[in-house]
Design brief:
- It is a single chain.
- This protein has 105 residues and is an alpha+beta fold.
- It has one domain.
- It is built from three helices and six strands, in the order αβββββαβα.
- A four-stranded antiparallel sheet has the order 1-2-5-6.
- The protein is elongated.
- The model has no long low-confidence stretch (mean pLDDT 80).
- It binds zinc ion.
- Zinc ion (ZN) binds next to loops.
């Protein structure tokens, strides 16, 4: 026997879409290459900011291997999260590392 599978109409009431997409401001951190994260190394807390290749426009010296981080190389910037002089000083003291050097540091 054939069954009727017609959807029932609910009093012709229009159902509103719940996909109310809100406009979201650009996420600066995401533009820079990723979310900032916190890592613990040797008992210290560090803030780690991934830097995308296209954001890397200077040559940095990596403290891990003393080698250069060439422009256009994705890498990370790290600074102490619990800096004794506060966040601003810590940020000024930030170091750029090759991602793999940071991992093994
Ligand atoms: Zn390195």
């Amino acid at each position: 026997m054939a069954r009727s599978n017609r959807p029932r109409r609910e009093n012709s009431r229009r159902r509103q879409s719940k996909r109310n997409q809100e406009w979201q401001p650009l996420d600066v951190e995401r533009l820079q290459g990723g979310m900032r994260r916190t890592e613990f190394k040797r008992g210290r807390e560090y803030t780690v900011q991934p830097i995308r290749a296209e954001r890397a426009q200077k040559v940095y010296t990596c403290p891990g291997c003393s080698g250069d981080i060439m422009p256009g190389t994705a890498h990370i910037a790290a600074w102490q999260a619990d800096h004794i002089m506060g966040d601003a000083s810590a940020l000024a003291d930030r170091r750029h590392w090759h991602s793999h050097c940071w991992k093994i540091a």
